[in-house]
Amino acid sequence: MTRPSGSSRPSGTEHGEARPPRGADAPDDRRPEDQRPARSRRRRGEPLAASWSPERAPAAPAPRSRRGALVAIGVVLLALTGFVVVRALAPSAETTDVRSPAAAAEQGPVVGEAPLGGDYAGVSIPTAELPAGGDFPVSGAGTWRVVPGTTPQVGVGRVYTYTVEIEDGATLAEGDGAFATAVDATLDDPRSWAGTGQIALRRVDATSGVVPDFRISLTSQLTTRAQCGYQIRYEASCWKSDIGRVLINGSRWVRGAAAFEGQLGLYRQYAINHEVGHVFRNQHVPCPAAGELAPVMMQQSFGVSNDYLAQLTDSNPQGIQIPRDGKVCRPNAWPNPTGR
Fold it and tell me: What residues does the DUF3152 domain cover (predicted)?
């Protein structure tokens, strides 16, 4: 099943590289001229070598090896002097992230995005497992209360009436009215059963004086298991013809199904349309062609891969033998997806 909704990778630090300020000249020695060391009394710009005096004979040139050593020592001293000056003039404050963008990218983000949707063709992928998520109604009283409200008729053909109900003791965070609104909006949609041009639907309540043709009932996890059976050890909803009740499993209503990759609203529409489809005597079907929208009567709560569904239902038939043909569909909530 929700991708929670885009982040971008940092392209680098926000600020450019800090440049050292222009340094000031070294402070002057304020001592009197006659109290300064001899080397300090030299004039600015004179070489670092001993002072030149015309009265002295010129010194003999140093041997070549000695001259090279002196040059090397001078280069080292100049390099060290430059390093000290730069360090002295550089600002003491540093940016928060002192790594280069390339180094940060190599180490990776502190936290990354979750992987995108998976390939459900492999039979080992447990898409029938209930996804993680919020709290759902675990148990209830086994009786249901009718949510007040009615709708005008939608569609043409034989009219089917329904009520919306909530199991006593089962509580939804969004309240009873939100469940009823979701049911009505799904069944009133032209992509739903009434949009096929073969039947019509109308919601009634306890004040209507009408015995409904079926009841759409939000039901706790354990009551659903007791009513629908639990041979396949995964959460499911069902149509109970003997009591005229579509049982929508509260755990699935809150958590959805893995094949829907977090699209909880789409899954809820599927759950309503799939179970109401059983009211109209539709049976389970497999994925007809790889990559196509799944038929709404495919058991998408368990997955959209024929191979995976076959693995689950071989020992617990669900009305049809699912072929192991490698076909994988895309999740779909509607019996009439085009709305025509």
Answer: 130-337
